[in-house]
Amino acid sequence: MDSARRDGAEAGEVRRFWRELGLPGLVDVHTHFMPERVLRKVWAYFDALGPLTGGVAWPITYRAEEDERAALLREFGVRAFTAMLYPHKPGMARWLNTWAVGFARRTPDCLHTATLFPEPGVEEYVREAVAAGARVFKAHVQVGAYDPADELLRPAWGLLAEAGIPVVIHCGSGPAPGKHTGPGPIAEVLARHPDLRLVVAHLGMPEYEEFLDLAERYGEVRLDTTMAFTDFTEKLMPFPRRALPRLADLGDRVLLGSDFPAIPYPYLHQLRALEGLGLGARWLRAVCHDNAARLFGLDGPDTAGRPATGPAA
Ligand SMILES: [Zn+2]
């Protein structure tokens, strides 16, 4: 991290952003924490301009040790965040979930995150993760190169729908398409599990409008803002301006996500990019804090009836 970040200059500006909105802090539903050797591999991938980035240069702004990264989110005033972790092959999800239990224990402001993969035993380890207190799941259709409508996943989706546990899912075809990315396979999953609380990562980029269609059709589908509207993304996958009124109307189901720490710009830029949409302070308050606080019951019982466990700001 460069010195301006370390000396707290950026943190001051981030705090000013949410204070001016009258918020108690931010909730960021899309931050990456994972076992160190997996994280190093992911970073090497970004550094090497791999297919994950579509061959685009991707300097990682917050390359630091785990405790330093979590401390920085706290300095920003992020009340709650996630540990988006995901397997790229079978036999890995259970191990990641075990790591995530430990991370959640030592990081009380992290919403305990778990993951899954279409493989024998998935229903069992998803059930175990839920019993261990998982509050959110992450699925990565592009990196995992699997069909989310795979029969093997059906009981796991059913279980998560029943439990009301949100699943942040990278299913859009950006920055690079995968064999099963795009709205089609997800539409199949939702047709079977209409109550599943899918949070479409990155606003579904570049298929923004198709994923807005799904959110309008299914009341439990949400969208996270991760990397959307930033200068970086607008150059590669611009959000169609004609769809802004639809995004305004879905203001109670859009959630702040950032992709911290592997972002090619400062954290503040994501917030300013949202502000720059001109959708107003009410929309920003909902997106940057209130929607996720409600979904995860940070200030009272959530709709799944779980007690409030979120830390204070
Ligand atoms: Zn991500």
From TrEMBL:
Residues passing through the membrane, by range: none
Protein origin, superkingdom: Bacteria
GO molecular function terms noted in the UniProt entry: carboxy-lyase activity; hydrolase activity
Residue span, Amidohydrolase-related domain: 27-298
Coiled-coil boundaries: none
Annotated GO biological process: secondary metabolic process
UniProt GO cellular component terms: cytoplasm
InterPro entries: ACMSD (IPR032465), Amidohydro-rel (IPR006680), Metal_Hydrolase (IPR032466)
Pfam families with a match to the protein in the record: Amidohydro_2 (PF04909)
Keywords linked to the UniProt accession: Lyase
Entry protein name: Amidohydrolase-related domain-containing protein
Taxonomic source organism: Streptomyces zinciresistens K42
Highest classification ranks of the organism: Bacteria, Bacillati, Actinomycetota, Actinomycetes, Kitasatosporales
